[in-house]
Design brief:
Elements lengths: L1 H28 L7 E7 L8 H12 L3 E6 L7 H13 L4 E5 L3 H11 L5 E3 L11 E2 L4 H15 L5 E6 L5 H14 L5 E6 L7 H11 L4 E4 L2 H14 L4 E5 L3 H8 L5 E5 L1 H13 L1 H7 L7 E4 L7 H7 L5
Parallel strand pairs: 1-2, 1-3, 3-4, 4-5, 6-7, 6-8, 8-9, 9-10
Antiparallel strand pairs: 10-11
Helix pairs in contact: 2-10, 3-4, 5-6, 7-8, 10-11
């Protein structure tokens, strides 16, 4: 009799344990997946196409780390009020991190710092006087400008006239590139002409055309996408030839490099910029350790070497 009771107790215990195990499995299997992090990328310019390479890099990082990327462009190249409004909206909507390409470096940085945010903020450019706590993902902009200036000094005569087209100088990246170039060519060019760019949304192409017809120059230098594109349009409209040295990642600059409208193009690895920016936005401590050795690459490319393997990968990252 005792053996029967013991056997029954054993069976009951087994059933209870089995039921508990089933309950635990059902509970754990029904636990919802964690909500993906929301990364807001707030950038200048009125077209998302300008940011394709950076967006692709950031999207890759987000897709492998349970995060969603939201790219927000502005209605213009330069409107700090609009960019501040977008930043406020993204914070209010619950962004877990911000990646910002500031249209006005000093102003946007000051605006963000005043908010004392408790979420990561990553800047897609070099910041002048950056603090150790600032997260900046960019190539060395001063060095880019300096090396482009060295190349001009090497390839052009010492009596050459160089026009420096200073567009969008409210951005530290552009200003640092220009300073580097000036430091490199001072005393090595016959004459330097200063053409102030337009950062306030007027017809920049028309202004550049006036410069071109009013002052003779051999070489023209630009430091960013929109100014480079405006220059190339102005030269085409006038049917004018000049030796163009530029820092740009625009499709128009690459096309003109191929058609010899651009003598030399300095091109940045924006895909890696986007990837690293997103990784730092998701986990700054991890990214700092994991990618501490990683420097954003840039290359000086001309028509003759644009299809070299490394240059082709940089210029056409999504072409098989």
């Amino acid at each position: 009799m005792r053996k029967i009771l013991s056997h029954k107790k054993l069976m009951i215990g087994v059933f209870i344990l089995a039921g508990l195990l089933v309950a635990v499995l059902m509970f754990t299997s029904k636990r919802p997946d964690p909500e993906p992090k929301r990364i807001s990328m707030v950038v200048y310019a009125d077209t998302a196409e300008r940011w394709d390479n950076i967006r692709e890099g950031a999207s890759l990082a987000c897709s492998t780390n349970n995060a969603k990327l939201n790219l927000i462009t502005m209605l213009s190249e330069y409107d700090p009020y609009e960019q501040e409004e977008i930043i406020d909206r993204e914070i209010a909507d619950g962004a877990d991190a911000l990646i910002i390409a500031p249209c006005s470096s000093a102003r946007i940085r000051e605006y963000v710092d005043a908010k004392r945010l408790h979420i990561p903020v990553v800047y897609l450019e070099s910041l002048e006087d950056a603090l150790p706590t600032d997260i900046c993902i960019a190539a060395d902009d001063y060095k880019m400008g300096y090396e482009l200036g060295e190349k001009i000094a090497e390839e052009e005569s010492d009596i050459v006239t160089v026009a420096i087209l200073s567009g969008n100088d409210g951005r530290d990246s552009v200003r640092l590139r220009e300073q580097g170039l000036r430091d490199a060519i001072t005393g090595k060019a016959g004459k330097i002409i200063n053409w102030p760019g337009n950062r306030y949304g007027a017809d920049e192409r028309t202004a550049i055309q006036k410069y071109i017809v009013s002052e003779a120059t051999d070489v023209i230098v630009t430091f960013d996408n929109s100014t480079t594109d405006a220059l190339l349009d102005a030269l085409t409209n006038l049917g004018h030839n000049a030796r163009v040295y530029c820092i740009s990642t625009s499709n128009k600059a690459v096309y003109n490099l191929y058609s010899r409208g651009v003598n030399m193009l300095e091109y940045t690895d924006e895909f890696s910029m986007g990837y690293l920016a997103a990784m730092h936005a998701l986990d700054h401590a991890y990214a700092t350790g994991r990618y501490s050795h990683k420097q954003i690459e840039y290359r000086m490319v001309r028509k003759e070497n644009m299809y070299d393997e490394d240059n082709q990968t940089l210029l056409f990252p999504f072409v098989d």
